[in-house]
Amino acid sequence: MSDSTAEIHLQYLNYPDVQKLAMTDAEIIAAVEQGLVAQARGEATIEPRMHLVPEKDYPGHFNVLRGYIRTLGERGVAGVKVVGDFYRNYEIGLPSELAILNLFNPKNGVPVAIIDASDITDMRTGAVTAIGAKHLARKDSKILGHIGARGTAYWNVRLLNSIFHFDEIRVHSRRKESRDAFAAKLEQDLGVKITVTEDWESCVRGADIVVEASRLEKPAPMLKTEWIKKGACVIPYGTNSAVELSLTDIMDKMVMDDWGQAKAGPFGALRAHVDSGKLSETTLYAELGQIVAGMKPGRQSDDETNLFWHRGLSLSDIALGCAMLDKAKAMGIGQTLRFR
Prior knowledge:
- The chain is an alpha/beta fold.
- It folds into two domains: 9-120 and 315-338, ornithine cyclodeaminase, domain 1 (2-Layer Sandwich); 137-311, 3-Layer(aba) Sandwich (Rossmann fold), CATH 3.40.50.
- Helix content is 32%, strand content 24%.
- The protein has ten helices and 15 strands.
- The protein has helices at residues 15-21, 25-40, 118-136, 151-164, 176-190, 200-204, 259-262, 271-275, 288-292, 314-331, and strands at residues 9-13, 44-52, 60-69, 77-86, 97-104, 111-116, 143-147, 168-172, 194-196, 209-212, 233-236, 253-256, 286-287, 306-309, 335-338.
- Helix 2 packs across helix 10.
- The longest helix has 19 residues, at 118-136.
């Protein structure tokens, strides 16, 4: 084995660096759309996520996401993100999700960058939610019902509102202090009135777009199918299912970010629907990337009631991470670290 004397350096973006980038709504959505289109066109490789549960008594687990996008940069970019999902972190003053994104040269395995991906996780999740609704919800959707106030929730509401400019935004979460704080931040940043509801039903019933991003400790049918109005778009993506098994029965179109993710691991909002065959390769209408790339139509009538389930794609992390690196280079933000 020969010793190479060539130095290798990589770029490092920490949390303050990511904050300084101040990625705009449009920049975030455009980057994530790029990853979705690459997936649909066969210009990417995505592996099902893996889970690591350190101890069954610990209140959380790690997700490991892996992927490659051929069309990024001159030679493409491979990436691995490791994200901890610990739902009781609020008790010790930490976000529930903390993540690191590692980017590599796919031709030789050389590390390219390390990025604090906690915000990337939140931003790209919100972007996928918004892109899904853009194609599957009514264009004139005016009422948003959002369950959950965790990190990804902020970007769900912010990016959805950037597209639909809602007349009414309702939010609910289990803890009163979290939902009140969530509403206050949204009102401050978006300049719109937020309605805080005391229960799931008053948040969801009659809404044009329903997002379920709850943090249940175990599956429980908290969101009732009868609350969903005809013509709505429902986007559930909680770790543990909060929807009834009958939810898929009322849907005209069911869309996923990636069908391969449906079969990965024990978690997911529609885990029981896949296991029971209600959601299958036969009943799945499309993957979102196919719609974004123009290969399949999205919503085709105002009467459609549509479902979009996303589990999170490594491709979205990689595409957004690369967009951040490009902006950081232009702005002179970040650090160069010697690897070897």
